[in-house]
Amino acid sequence: MITIALIFVCVVVPAIVLHEYAHAWSADKLGDATARRMGRLTLNPLKHIDPVGTVLVPLMLYLPYAFGWTKSPIIFGFAKPVPFDPRQLHHPRRDIMLVRLAGPLMNVMIAFVFAKALAFVRNPGGQEIFATAVLLNLGLAVFNMIPVPPLDGSGILYAILPRQMLALVSRLDNFAGVIIVFVMLNMGWLNFLDRFIYSAARWMGV
Q: Is 76 in contact with 152 (CB distance < 8 Å)?
């Protein structure tokens, strides 16, 4: 249980917080200072953590993996949504996509750092935490890249779909979209993502 607590505090929460920080940072760089004005352009976890999305949901998904009941490292979690105003972005359709993709890219970068650092860790407990950090960050990145609202991959739709179809995407980009995602998870329709996650981990040397 101590290892699970360490992984949750040192891996899961930072992965989600840094994911949201990447959204805020990219929006700020692309012309929208909304997140900065609302105090979200910060690494302070208290500014990002949502009790349900950052703690309860990831924990419920992680525990079956930790106890060996499932081999899937997919973690679905979320922090308080980072506010941004598309009208303030330099090139709204393109920049919405870039802001959305910044989160998964951050998780890939975190996974890469942990993978390279793993080679220098000799303690078995530390190796477990670092290896789990790689898989969980890759899981968060791959899962979020599904182009279904409200996942970050839906940002691609904003860049490529005709404007008249974006109204449908916008309607799904809320709680209705969350329900769809949970149904997909519970039905096992996303299990195929596991091989992408483990292949990426092997490529990184884990």
A: no
